[in-house]
Amino acid sequence: VIHVRKISAFLHFLRIRMLQHDRTVRSVMPWFLICLSFFSAAAAAAFGVVSFFSNHGEFFLPESVLVALQRGQLWTNVLSSKPVSGGINIILNNVLVSFRTFVSGIFLGIPSLLLVLYNGWHLGSVLSVTAKFSMAGKLLQFVFNHGFLEITIILLSGALGLKTGISFFSLPAGLRFQYFVTCFQDSLNSVMILSLWLFVCGIVESRLSPIMANLLPHRLMLPVSCISGLLLLGLYIFIHHRRKETHGRDAGNKEAE
Questions:
Q1: What is the per-residue burial (b if ≥16 Cβ within 10 Å, else e) of 103-114?
Q2: What residues contact residue 39 under an 8 Å CB cut-off, 6+ apart?
Q3: Which whole-number Å values give the CA distances from 144 to 126, 148, 223, in the listed order?
Q4: Alpha-carbon gap, residue 207 to 204, rounded angstroms
Q5: Phi and psi (nearest 5°) for 111?
Q6: pLDDT at residue number 159
Q7: CB–CB of 149/94 below 8 Å?
Q8: Torsion-angle region of 217 (φ positive above 0: left; ψ -120 to 50: alpha; else: beta)
Q9: Is 219 helix (H, G, I), strand (E, B) or coil?
């Protein structure tokens, strides 16, 4: 009986955390759109700059990767030969990027926005380099499978950091610190939950994405990769929306009683 109560209490705690995450994500949507705009602009700018003013985009890609590209090989082939170790490294890196993007936002939100710009510039420049070697199709086949959800999580982390940093100036002086602490705690809860989804992205990136990248680009494979990535993002949205509806029904039943 004691174990059942502990499990029940733990499940109730998780449910409360999930509901708080849902509320936090909905409240941060305007900041998410700002981060998405900056990320997209940086990616487009990087693609143009590297395409016209740089030979290989050496700032983001080491010499060994450039040599592999000249031989017609993507660096993603490493994941095909070492999916377990590669997957662990990917998951840890993505979780660290997510937390760093959020936590740095306590400094007025500016570092979070800069990290969003950096990630956008990185993606655009790498895509431009692979296009020069006629391998952009393979890269997109690799990225699409996990990238939609992964990038969404990174942008949400940036939006949470941006909102948290600016929240310190959102209320009169007497309430600022308390409001800031509340925003930070709610946002940290969301980042921890989003990190669990980064584990899912890491598994897809280390298992499915390399297989898709090694297939020859043609009219079918790019849409297949895009659809699989959108389905993964849709899974997160579906679970979020379903949990919201369930909470609404439970609240309505309590009021009726």
A1: bbbbeebebbbe
A2: 116, 117, 119, 120, 151, 155
A3: 14, 6, 9
A4: 5
A5: -60, -35
A6: 92
A7: no
A8: beta
A9: coil
The mean predicted confidence, pLDDT, of the chain is 79
Nearest to 148 by CA among 34, 68, 241, 225: 225
Does residue 63 register a pLDDT over 80?
Answer: no
Q: Tell me the pLDDT tens digit for each residue of 180-200.
A: 788 888 888 888 988 888 888
For 218-222, what is the mean pLDDT?
A: 72
Dist CA 229 CA 226 (whole Å)? 5
Can you tell me which residue has the tokens 């993606």?
123
Kindly report the CA angle at 56 between 54 and 60, in degrees rounded to 5? Answer: 100
Burial of 209 (0-12, 13-18, 19+ CB in 10 A): buried
For residue 53, give the H/E element and its range.
Answer: helix 29-53
- Comparing C-alpha atoms, which of 238, 3, 202, 245 is closest to residue 83? 202
Rounded mean pLDDT, 210-221: 71
The percent of residues in the chain predicted with pLDDT above 70, rounded, is 76
Structure tokens given for 108: 């007025």
Amino acid symbol at 65: V
Structure tokens at 35: 């981060």
Q: Which residue has the tokens 């400094």?
A: 107
User: pTM for the complete prediction?
Assistant: 0.82
Residues 6+ apart with CB under 8 A from 75: 65, 68
For the beta carbon of residue 255, count every other beta carbon within 10 angstroms.
7
